[in-house]
């Protein structure tokens, strides 16, 4: 069974650190086969808010979005999601981030002649 550390803490109602909790689980006879950190590869991903959208000048199904990635830092991204609209909270990843499911590394690219300055991610898993 695969479970998260946070899930364990919620259901066991404990404040133990990860190492101590794992020791306690082993002491009561529950085998912990391995521990994986899922956040190491996702450090570049941020929760972001779309603050403005406009139709891409050279593509029917794409939008150019202004995205606030925190501390009023605004990035311009190209997005293909139909539901992209002002006020939507979503996930943002800059060039160099790797999509966990596909292992695709995000890069700066021209999309229909518009330079994609940053990358915008909808489906991480």
Would you write up a description of this structure?
Helix content is 14%, strand content 29%. The protein is an alpha+beta fold. The longest helix has 10 residues, at 18-27. It starts with a helix and ends with a strand. Residues 121-125 have low confidence and may be disordered.
Integer-rounded radius of gyration: 20 Å
How many β-strand stretches? 7
Strand order of the largest sheet: 3-2-1-4-7
Count of folded domains? 2
Helix content: 10-25%
Uncertain regions: pLDDT < 50 for 5+ in a row?
121-125
CATH architectural name of the largest domain: Beta Barrel
What shape does the CA trace take?
elongated
Kindly name the structural category: alpha+beta
* Mean pLDDT across all amino acids: 82
What's the CATH H-level superfamily name of the largest domain?
Nucleic acid-binding proteins
Give the termini distance in whole angstroms: 19 Å
Question: How are the SSEs ordered, and which strands pair?
Answer:
Elements: H1 5-12, H2 18-27, E1 46-55, E2 63-68, E3 74-79, E4 89-93, E5 109-111, E6 114-116, E7 119-121
Antiparallel strand pairs: 1-2, 1-4, 2-3, 4-7, 5-6
What attributes characterize this protein structure?
about 120 residues; five-stranded antiparallel beta sheet; elongated; OB fold (Dihydrolipoamide Acetyltransferase, E2P); about 30% strand; 2 helices; alpha+beta
Quick overview:
This protein has 125 residues and is of the alpha+beta class. It has helices spanning 5-12, 18-27; strands at 46-55, 63-68, 74-79, 89-93, 109-111, 114-116, 119-121.
């Amino acid at each position: 069974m695969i479970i998260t550390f946070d899930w364990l803490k919620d259901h066991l109602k404990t404040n133990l650190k990860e190492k101590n909790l794992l020791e306690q689980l082993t002491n009561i006879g529950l085998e912990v086969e391995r521990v994986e950190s899922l956040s190491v590869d996702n450090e570049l991903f941020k929760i972001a808010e779309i603050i403005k959208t406009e139709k891409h000048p050279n593509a029917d199904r794409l939008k150019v979005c202004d995205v606030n990635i925190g501390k009023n830092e605004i990035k311009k991204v190209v997005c293909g999601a139909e539901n992209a609209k002002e006020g939507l909270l979503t996930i943002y990843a800059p060039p160099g981030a790797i999509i966990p499911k596909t292992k695709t590394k995000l890069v700066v690219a021209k999309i229909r002649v518009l330079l994609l300055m940053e990358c915008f991610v909808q489906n991480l898993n």
